[in-house]
Amino acid sequence: MSFGRPPSISTGFSPAPPDRGSFPLDHYGECKEYMSVYLDCLRKNSSNSTPCRPLNRNYLDCRMNKGLMDRDDWKNLGLSNLAGDTPKSGPPTSTSNPPSSQTDPSKPS
After folding, report:
1. Which of 1, 55, 82, 104 could form an S-S bond across to 38 if both were Cys, CB 3.0 to 4.6 Å?
2. Residue boundaries of the structural domains of the chain
3. What is the mean pLDDT of the chain?
């Protein structure tokens, strides 16, 4: 009886780079906050990713900025058509500041 790899694999096998979409694990938790917020959103929305897409974009932006994945165009990642969003550069916050209702005195009414 033989143990080990099947005979067909033992000859001519060469390792290949990972497929597109594979990237290093975040061992140091550099983007853990973004990931947690995104996963919480998925849980609250019964795994419906539509309302969580901006959070997904923020998470992937963090990964690209930290070198945990290669930079890619948002259209290639399926996140180019988000309405009026820009990825946050800082970590997510639990409170949101509503826009100020004060008018700018330098602008005429």
Report:
1. 55
2. 30-78
3. 75
Listed in order, strand segments (DSSP E) in 1-86 are none
Amino acid (one-letter) located at 103: T
Residue owning tokens 């000859």: 11
Find how far residue 52's CA is from the centre of its chain.
Answer: 11
> Which residues have CB under 8 Å from 92's CB, separation 6+?
33, 34, 37, 55, 58
Joined tokens for residue 32: 């853990």
Whole-angstrom distance, CA of residue 72 vs CA of residue 61: 10
Distant-in-sequence, close-in-space partners of 66: CB < 8 Å, separation ≥ 6:
26, 30, 31
Of 61, 59, 41, 54, the C-alpha closest to 81 is 54
Tell me the pLDDT tens digit for each residue of 37-85: 999 999 999 999 899 999 999 999 999 999 888 888 999 888 888 765 5
Q: Is the dihedral of CA 55, 57, 63, 66 positive or negative?
A: negative
The 3-state DSSP class for residue 39 equals: helix
Single-letter amino acid, residue 58: N
